[in-house]
Amino acid sequence: MTMLKYQVRSSSRPTAYGSPSSSTHDTTLTSRSNSLASLNSVDSANSEGDWGTLRVYTSNVKACTAYKTIRVSTQCTTKSVIETILSKFKISCKDTNLFELWMEVTTKATTGVVRTLLRLDYTARPLQLQRCHPANMSRFILHMTSEGTLVRVHDHNISPQSNYKSLLLAEETTCREAIDILLSMNRKEPEGDYALFLTAPEGEAQIPSEVSLVPIAAINSKLAEMNGKLLVRKHCRENNLERVEAFLLNLFASQQADTNESQK
What we know:
Layout: E1 8-9, E2 23-29, H1 37-45, E3 51-57, E4 67-73, H2 78-88, E5 99-109, E6 112-120, H3 126-130, E7 138-144, E8 149-154, E9 164-169, H4 175-185, E10 194-200, E11 203-207, H5 213-223, E12 229-234, H6 241-263
Parallel strand pairs: 2-6, 3-7
Antiparallel strand pairs: 1-2, 3-4, 5-6, 5-7, 8-9, 10-11, 10-12
């Protein structure tokens, strides 16, 4: 039988979880074995085949709830589990990349009960992992991280009565994902013909859809001094990142030239 191999690294955990009477270790699950032979042997003995249920504790996300039970397949990823629960709670206007799924594994040792917390990678398969442990010896916890960045996006082209929206985004959230959040906040269906633009009096540059938005927003805070802003609107073609970089370089060079001229 091929054993699952875990690669782990230290990570902070939700402080609300853990027992004073038990030893707790915090790790992050980042990869799995390529072979799932040991999992398949468990699945074949299970009457539900490739489907099962997960109980996910959700009080850190929605205070009035204790847990949510969902039915998933062994192929369902952590990302899908998070999206499913947020959808059931009708939390569609928040960045899913700010949410983490933790797995608490309980083992018995001579010194007592040991509880180990694993932060699951978005590509991990929670039901497969649950089946690696005895019943009632593991549980899942949904947690929202506090490591978000506020990004202001002007959205009057989506909703005329609105000026801008402030989005709390994770570092890795792409422009495409940010646009989907904006559309959800404005109660509009996701569309592929919207794009984000860096705009300034000197011109504008379209941001590629797969680029992470938070680093661009950091540049945008500098652009604000030049009447620049992030704007969402429909687009005709996709820009590449080199064009955005060229636009910014020209913009900052122009601003520096104006500053030098005024100091003469």
